[in-house]
């Protein structure tokens, strides 16, 4: 969680001089890839990290949002989204059949 807060602090330092009208989004990838150092973090730990980041962002006056693939949010599959969704908007990408791009929607 401490590293997620440090990432949020870095993000706020980068954006503080700009007028931000869109949410600041938390997007964590690579947790299912053995080449990433966050490989095999539990969904509980990942969710704690997301909440730490989003809480810090919100406490600094920005709107936070969670982003991932829709399949990772389904029934708390890869995230404990039930812990995030009551407090933050969630944006999900959904692969379109036969296409190489995603459609993004707010759940």
Short description:
With 107 residues, this protein is α/β, with parallel strands linked by helices. It has helices at residues 2-15, 43-59, 70-73, 81-84, and strands at residues 24-27, 64-69, 89-95, 102-106. The protein has a 4-stranded mixed sheet with strand order 1-2-3-4.
Describe what you observe in this structure.
With 107 residues, this protein is α/β, with parallel strands linked by helices. 36% of the residues lie in helices and 21% in strands. It has four helices and four strands. The chain has helices at 2-15, 43-59, 70-73, 81-84; strands spanning 24-27, 64-69, 89-95, 102-106. It has a four-stranded mixed sheet. Strand 1 (24-27), helix 2 (43-59) and strand 2 form a beta-alpha-beta unit. The protein is globular. The chain starts with a helix and ends with a strand.
Task: For the structure shown, list the relevant keywords.
alpha/beta; 4 helices; 107 residues
Taking pLDDT < 50 over at least 5 consecutive residues as the criterion, the unreliable ranges are none
Q: How far is it from the N-terminal to the C-terminal residue, by CA?
A: 25 Å
Q: Helix tally?
A: 4
Strand order in the largest sheet: 1-2-3-4
Largest sheet data? 4 strands, mixed
Overall spatial form: globular
In helices, the fraction of residues equals: 25-40%
Our estimate of the beta-strand percent is 15-25%
Order of helices and strands: HEHEHHEE
- How does the helix and strand content classify structurally? alpha/beta
Tell me, rounded to a whole number, the average pLDDT: 86
Overall strand count:
4
**Radius of gyration, CA atoms, in whole angstroms:** 14 Å
């Amino acid at each position: 969680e401490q590293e997620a807060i440090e990432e949020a602090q870095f993000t706020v330092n980068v954006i503080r001089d700009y007028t931000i009208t869109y949410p600041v989004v938390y997007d964590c990838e690579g947790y299912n890839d053995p080449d990433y150092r966050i490989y095999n973090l539990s969904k509980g730990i990942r969710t704690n990290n997301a909440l730490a980041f989003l809480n810090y962002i919100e406490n600094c006056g920005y709107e936070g949002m969670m982003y991932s693939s829709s399949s990772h949010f389904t029934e708390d599959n890869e995230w404990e989204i039930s812990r995030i969704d009551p407090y933050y908007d969630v944006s999900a990408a959904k692969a379109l059949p036969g296409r190489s791009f995603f459609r993004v929607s707010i759940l």
